[in-house]
Amino acid sequence: MTTETGKEQFTFQAEISRLLHLLSESLYQNKEITIRELVSNASDALDKLRHASLTNSDIDASDLSITLAPDKDENVLIIRDNGVGMTRDELVQNIGTIAHSGSLEFIQKLQQSDNKDDVSLIGQFGVGFYSSFMLSERVEVRTRSYTEQKGWIWESTGDGSFTIAEPEAPLQRGTEIVLHLKKDLGEFADATRLKYILRKYSTFVPHPIKVEDEHINDQPPIWVEPKSTVTEEQYQNFYEYLTHFPGQQPLWHLHLTADSPFQFHSILYCPDSNLERMGFGRSEHGLHLCAKRILVQNDNRDLLPDYLRFLRGIVDSADLPLNVSREALQDNTVFRKMKKVLTKKVLDHLDSTAGEDAAAYGKFYREFGSVLREGIGEDFDNKDRLAKLLRFSSSNSTAEDGLASLAGYCERKPEDQTQIYFATGTDSAAVLRDPNMEVFRDRGLEVLILTDPVDEYVLNNLQAFDDCDIVSIDSADLKLPGAAEENEDGEETEDKPATKEDDPAGFDKVLTLIREALGDQVEDVRRSERLTESACCLVNSAGAQSTTMQKVLQTNVPDFEMSKMILELNPSASLIARLCELSVNSDNDAFVKTCGQQLYSNAMIMAGLAPNGSEMADRVQGFMMELAKDRSSIST
User: Hey, where are the domains in the chain?
Assistant: First the structure.
């Protein structure tokens, strides 16, 4: 709609109106972030112009800068850049609609936050411009694209609509944001206050920032400085500039320099928390990539493998061209070698931390292990190194910092143990209740406890470590180490496990009867080598995935069918021994078969599977009726 004054009027999308209302009413005290966000956006506009100038010699990018012009008398703050500017359509798309912003996602995350007023992460969602309404009762955007001659004026009070009009006289190239400050926020029109804010948040912006002709961000880039000359405060300030995480300390940082066969400088940071675990979705940020200290890309996601995507930082190389696309970079030999070196340095650091400070590494792994483990299936060259960095819960309480490494597991296991055992379940308590755990508990054999199905996928991909196959405790491939050893005199030092010769008479017949009763419901019914207390358990056939993994696939993959399982019976269990006694009389065959069906249902329940409920109920009622008959014959 066009008004009488020649202004076109537009309505914000509903999501942006909600965002503007939230910001304008926000009680969040750190309103300084508005300055941080608008300066950051101005810097991006300058970067885009410099990129355009690399392929268009008609563009003058020789004096790019950001200027803040406060006016205390008028209670106005102007933030100006001479970057790419915007066309009319870009104004509508970039500021008026959700198509080019993360405002909906930002609102959702903010509503889920414990602190509804904490909008400090707004820059993470590409909607930093809207923070203007935290400070302003009215915002003007005066802008001219480098592709046009006149320009446009955008204006809004944050009430759900905005207008766009042509200026009376041509504007300068770039964008000028005019904040008509709220009455109680005159501090943001004070030059001294602005200089403090800029030095706090924008010291490392790669373009000059000026207030009253004073160059504010004149600190040299710390990534090209010798490590010995950089203070912890400088590292912290740079981290906050990169991440928009004010006040948060990274877990660690790496300051790297390489001179041969190619030259680059880099600082990498590991955040103290994993936003992916907190429900913020997949991390989509990248590293800042510079060539000769000039920013080439501010979100390069190809300098590190995807499983290290949580790292933040900057890489600066004198061996990279300025005017290069992402596709060309991926084909660039220097770029590929830099990625290899950076990956090696990060893994070296993690190796060192894991060996020298188990508690620190445990803290890191609990946050980022879910991402790091993806490398097992992605990075064949570093697969063995990554395997050493994996950590799991364990039945061994002495495992390092409560988490077991595969290397530590192999150091603790008996010499004749040829497999690494793991168990899966919904939680540790459920795993420890699994009948399959009995033999491991009795023999003191360590079992890795996996409560995340992805961990099993990782171990299945790995298959082996240090010449030991990795197997689930409910696998038919299970091989247990010998429980008895001989001393120098040839005498056994421990009791041997029970053998078939120790089985009660009739056990083979019981196996046959139950095998007949279950038919093709199972792959086999056999003697158990792993049970010491329970009467029975279910195990998976050789090569099959664990029961937990199959249940996950059954839930998520249409038409997935679980593989037939093996029912194992414990000949030492009193119930099985009693069935063996009954099997001597063939009149009891039907009863033994019925008991076998019930044992199978019991084993399914213990394995977290659902038996046929109606059949099981009928059997149980039949057992109860037989018991009632026996009781009625007893004289009272």
Answer: 8-215, 222-388, 390-485, 498-636
pLDDT (0 to 100) of residue 502: 79
Instruction: Answer whether 232's CB lies under 8 Å from 251's CB.
Output: no
In contact, 217 and 204? CB cutoff 8 Å: yes
CATH superfamily of the domain spanning 8-215? Histidine kinase-like ATPase, C-terminal domain (3.30.565.10)
Q: Yes or no: say if 80 and 221 are a contact pair by the CB < 8 Å rule.
A: no
Residue 316 bridge partners (DSSP): 265, 290
**CB contact at 8 A, 411 and 400:** no
| Eight-state DSSP code of residue 334 | H
Give the pLDDT confidence of 466-478 residue by residue, as tens digits. 999 999 999 988 9
Domain 498-636 matching CATH 1.20.120.790: the answer reads: yes
Compare 452 and 346 and report the one with higher pLDDT: 346
222-388: CATH topology is Ribosomal Protein S5; domain 2 (3.30.230)
- Of 569, 481, 573, nearest to 528 by C-alpha is 569
User: 285 pLDDT band (50/70/90 cuts)?
Assistant: confident
List residues bridging with 468 in a β-sheet.
465
Q: Model's pTM, two decimal places?
A: 0.68
Phi, psi of 625 (to 5 degrees): -65, -45
